[in-house]
Amino acid sequence: APEQAARMKKLQEQEKRQKVEFRKRMEQEVSQFIQATGEPRRRFQPMSKIERSILHDVAEVAGLTSFSFGDDEDSRYVMVFKKEFAPSDEELDAYRRGEEWDPARAEERRRLRELAAQQEEAELERGPTPAGPPNDYKDKYRHLIGSDAAKAAARTMEANKAYGCVPVANKRDTRSIEEAMNEIRAKKRLRQAEDE
């Protein structure tokens, strides 16, 4: 047990030394990045969670903006941005999707979104569109029925005696509603009297 404790202590000290060395190395790289005038951002190699947290801390102390990108733990990497070149939300979304940031394409997307918003606003100003079919069915069948077939049929239309218009003589029940209701009530009273 004492040997194992000594080994553990040695490993912890070694880990601590490695973290200190890593921090010094990152501080040097970040200071080189700050001094490089033509470089607005720098992408670091994929690293472990602890190393990423150290790098984020170093960037924050140096007055830089840093973000981690990548899907799984093995491929996550850190990008450090100078404050004057802080990334936009669109740029961050592109990096999160794993794409390279292209300002020209982003400008094109922004312009298309503005155009769509203007079109939507113009449609709202016009008011609601009337409900109805997009085309007239008569146009589809004009070659079969002609253009004035419906007008001619409407002029010669007569009521169909077998459908809809039934003369009173053909009806079975000629009573009014009140008479029919009174007769139903009388039958109920008679039935109740017989049951008693």
Automatic annotation (TrEMBL):
Quick one: where's region Disordered?
98-139
Q: Where is the composition biased (Basic and acidic residues)?
A: 98-114
- The transmembrane segments are none
Query: Gene3D superfamilies, alphabetically?
Result: R3H-like domain (3.30.1370.50)
Q: Which residues form the R3H domain?
A: 20-83
Cited CDD domains: R3H_sperm-antigen
Q: Name one GO molecular function term.
A: nucleic acid binding
Q: Which InterPro entries match?
A: R3H_dom (IPR001374), R3H_dom_sf (IPR036867), R3H_sperm-antigen (IPR034068), SPAG7 (IPR017330)
Q: Which SUPFAM superfamilies match?
A: R3H domain
Protein name, as recorded: SPAG7 protein
Protein species of origin: Machaerirhynchus nigripectus
Task: List the gene name.
Answer: Spag7
